[in-house]
Design goal:
about 70 residues; mainly alpha
């Protein structure tokens, strides 16, 4: 994608922002992250349930931020 980034309308800053958002999304929605496991054990539920509850809000937030960046 890097050689063709200009064809998609991406600059270096936008590409870095996309990579950062993707990493944050993966860490936040992961059911094996430390914070998800701790919060799930305190609540007495499965970490997968925590990830399922986080997923819709995170996806909506990423879509909104992508429209703001691009």
């Amino acid at each position: 994608m890097t050689p063709h980034a200009a064809q998609f309308g991406l600059t270096i800053v936008n590409m870095g922002s996309v990579a950062t958002l993707s990493g944050a999304l993966g860490r936040t929605m992961s059911p094996i992250s430390g914070s998800a496991i701790i919060c799930a054990s305190i609540a007495g539920i499965s970490p997968l349930e925590v990830a399922k509850r986080n997923a819709p809000g995170m996806i909506i937030a990423v879509v909104v931020i992508m429209f703001m960046l691009l």
